[in-house]
Amino acid sequence: MKILVPVKRVLDYNVKPRVKSDGTGVDLANVKMSMNPFDEIGVEEAIRLKEKGVATEIVAVSVGPAKAQETLRTALAMGADRAILVQTDDAVEPLALAKIFKAIADAEQPGLVILGKQAIDDDNNQTGQMLAALTGWAQGTFASAVNVDGDSVNVTREVDGGLETVKLKLPAIVTTDLRLNEPRYASLPNIMKAKSKPLDTKTPADYGVDTAPRVKVVKVSEPAARSAGVKVADVDELVAKLKALGVHS
Amino acid sequence: MKTLVWVEHDGKAVKDATLAVVTAASKLGEVHLLVAGSGVDAVAKEAAGIAGVGKVHVADNAAFGHNLPENIAPLVAELMGSHDAFLAPATTTGKNIAPRVAALLDVMQISEILSVEGPKTFTRPIYAGNAIATVESSDAKLVLTVRGTAFDKAATSGGSGTVEAVGAGSDAGISSFVGAEIAKSERPELTSAKIIVSGGRALGSSEKYEEVIVPLADKLGAALGASRAAVDAGYVPNDYQVGQTGKIVAPQVYFAIGISGAIQHLAGMKDSKTIVAINKDEDAPIFQVADFGLVADLFNAVPELTGKI
After folding, report:
1. C-alpha distance from residue A40 to each of A86, A163, B302 (Å)
2. How high is the ipTM of this complex?
3. Smallest CA–CA separation between A57 and chain B, in Å?
């Protein structure tokens, strides 16, 4: 079985985003960029399925600028077998992304597509579900466990209030949640090896997908700041403040 | 504009998350509801009573019993033939279903709206709430998920919606429900609680969480929460997690105990009305957002607070 793993290049999760003063977005000039953490979990899960003998080939895909090659090389260094860069400098929305991935899935015929549940930049949480709709496949979102069993996969999902398990017919779409696994670091020899793994470059037009945005960003602003209140000296003072708010047993 | 609101329920009652979505929908136009499930008469009746509701579409079918999006999305897409906007709460259920509906309609969804600025203009958080984007849709129809803490809850009574059964629906046959482990508790739900007591990594163990945090929550009738660090360390189950990657909450009072205040945690609770922080590190970032901060050893201060409040 082949596994497709889409990966996105985003602002590194350790970098505090700064809103540009002209209100057009978040400043991405000269800041560290990395693979979206939820996508990293997706790559790791695919590799584990390959190590278990469930998967035979892992294809990493990224839609983004030329520099997204670096993100794909990271996936290859972790253990993906080959990569496809769908190169564009436009910001591509989830719906158009899902259309590109659908076209790639038609060509590659994977048994599973494993995506991050959301990218930590635009926080949309849509692409996996949309791809599932377009392919007509079943979806196991927010996965904390993935067990392939013959022609189906059991996905344990993190839902409000606890966990839920669904059984999906393959091929299927899985989106990852944080506790699915802890991604490995690529070793130096594997980073070297990744440089010679195949990486194809395409464009959205190659897949017949129009990436013109449907949603216009009018402006991006700082959230309302919350100011610090007072420090209380001791528990008695805190109790008094809370009682004044009507908080008591 | 005619809106269709996804009613989140547990088979017996309407969940609170739905009420905020009704408020958001009422800012766009006429509010219709969709109650989908198996044996949902009581839910439909309750939903019809929500203030401001026009029609309640009821899809009662075994295929809709476990909110499987493979079965529900086609139903919603069909109903969207006669509605202009579909709104769902930004819960794990809403987030699972809405994008599947959007793609079937060839609509770009707008996720987790915080406000309605115009008929097609909304604000939403990006970068874990570190920036707020104002966005405008150009699609013919709207698909939205709604952040529950950003809108007032519609009143649960006073409405006189008409209940109408919709098409039979069918099982797509590609997915099935296996089981769930849902924590059963007498406590209020995190996302709707008036008071939340959350513990962090400083507690050191699940025993200490039980010993220090739980009695205070018991005394105040509060919901229990935790930081991601405490969840990852295994002190509490993952559904306790408050933060960008957990639950987004906005109670009247939020107690952050032994929580340093990482960005990802703050994104989940900074809209709380009053924040109380107890931490022995006076430089902890949590104090920058706390209304009342107490620099103290939580193992002494919290039991004392529990005794005196």
Report:
1. 18, 22, 39
2. 0.95
3. 24
